[in-house]
Design a protein that fits this description.
This protein is α/β, with parallel strands linked by helices and about 350 residues long. It is built from 17 helices and eleven strands. The chain folds into two domains: about 60-220, Rossmann fold (3-Layer(aba) Sandwich); about 225-359. The chain is globular.
Length: about 350
């Protein structure tokens, strides 16, 4: 048993990846570990050539995943766009794992990310001792992915400044990175490409320049269209995460997932499921990812303090934490929802009580 808290996708799903590679005799783009069709099977689930079952990594539109895979088979970069919690990072990681066998070439973009973290840095001890040289140069994930012909992942691209974003323009258009200090450049090998993610609900986002936008194909990942689809997604991820954390999964977990998602979806959409009552919406996104985190919190509470019983009382504190980001505005929204909607539903009586107690 591994002692690591989380394995990268290429290690956690190594059996599935190896089975797909063994049974894949279709044409592959240069630098790819498997064909685009096999990558799609890995993402959406199915069966490998030897009968090995392949679990779905993404539950949603097949066409969106086809577009994402087809984009990466060209020389255009891919931008996965959507609200928080639409599995952008998850899809990005699994695309990199399936295509190049390495999902770890990652740049986490923040307001503090500078150009050196995109292009290259320097070992200053070497630099001062010997001057600019290849041994003093410190390659970034972008640099290494160009050298090795692999995919580089840029998480939350719009979080870093526009001037830093534009450092990517030459890389994406010319497929090379100039190194003026050495009077040389690094040229990308076949197989190199970039997968970037960005969300469109984040405060303080830096807009992409038009020059950079033109170098990306954009795939918008939507929130699940109906509750049945979202229940499937949350059930799968909760089961996987609970297994990794050694948390038992009670028999009633499916029922609690459906009830939590009903509340989240109604608050998120601003109306009840039947469309009869208009609701105020909180500032939080109440995404699928937040629902998963809420249920994992409930499972931990159940395992360690409630004798394995998953209940509204155990889930409610995590729900309140997910819903209330603004302590004044969001609290008022939740209180109104409890009184106008949940109070009138006998099947949610325990959540009405537990959420009121947790406020």
């Amino acid at each position: 048993m591994t002692t690591l808290l989380r394995l990268p996708a290429e290690q956690g799903y190594a059996t599935e990846l190896q089975a797909l590679v063994r049974g894949d005799d279709a044409q592959r783009p240069q630098g790819w570990k498997m064909s685009p069709r096999a990558v799609l099977t890995y993402l959406l689930g199915g069966t490998a050539g030897d009968g090995t079952p392949i679990s779905p990594k993404y539950v949603g539109s097949r066409r969106l995943m086809e577009t994402a895979v087809a984009t990466l088979a060209t020389d255009r970069a891919l931008l996965l766009l959507g609200v928080p919690g639409t599995a952008k990072s998850w899809v990005s990681e699994h695309l990199a794992a399936a295509i190049t066998g390495d999902s770890t070439l990652l740049v986490q973009c923040t307001a503090g990310t500078d150009e050196n973290q995109i292009r290259y840095g320097w070992n200053y001890a070497e630099l001062l001792a010997k001057g600019p040289s290849e041994t003093a140069l410190v390659p970034t994930p972008v640099y290494r992915s160009m050298q090795e012909g692999k995919l580089c992942r840029l998480e939350e691209l719009t979080r870093m400044g526009s001037d830093v974003q534009d450092a990517l323009i030459t890389v994406l258009s010319e497929k090379m990175m100039p190194i003026p200090e050495l009077n040389s450049a690094v040229y990308a090998k076949r197989g190199f490409n970039v997968i970037a993610t960005a969300n469109n609900r984040d405060k303080g986002v830096n807009e992409l320049s038009s020059a950079l936008k033109r170098r990306f194909n954009v795939v918008v990942l939507p929130l699940p269209s109906d509750i049945e689809e979202e229940v499937r997604i949350v059930s799968k991820r909760v089961g996987e995460m609970a297994g990794g954390l050694d948390l038992p999964v009670p028999k009633n977990v499916g029922e609690e997932i459906a009830r939590v998602l009903t509340i989240f979806r109604e608050l998120r959409s601003g109306s009840t499921a039947d469309g009869k009552v208009t609701l105020k919406t909180p500032t939080s996104s109440l995404s699928t990812a937040e629902a998963i985190a809420t249920l994992i919190g409930g499972l931990s509470q159940a395992a360690w303090f409630d004798d394995g019983r998953l209940s509204a009382a155990g889930v409610a504190p995590s729900m309140v934490g997910a819903i209330i980001k603004d302590p004044v505005q969001d609290k008022a929204v939740l209180e109104e929802y409890l009184e106008t909607v949940l109070k009138k539903r006998p099947e949610f009586a325990d959540y009405y009580t537990a959420l009121n107690d947790a406020l």
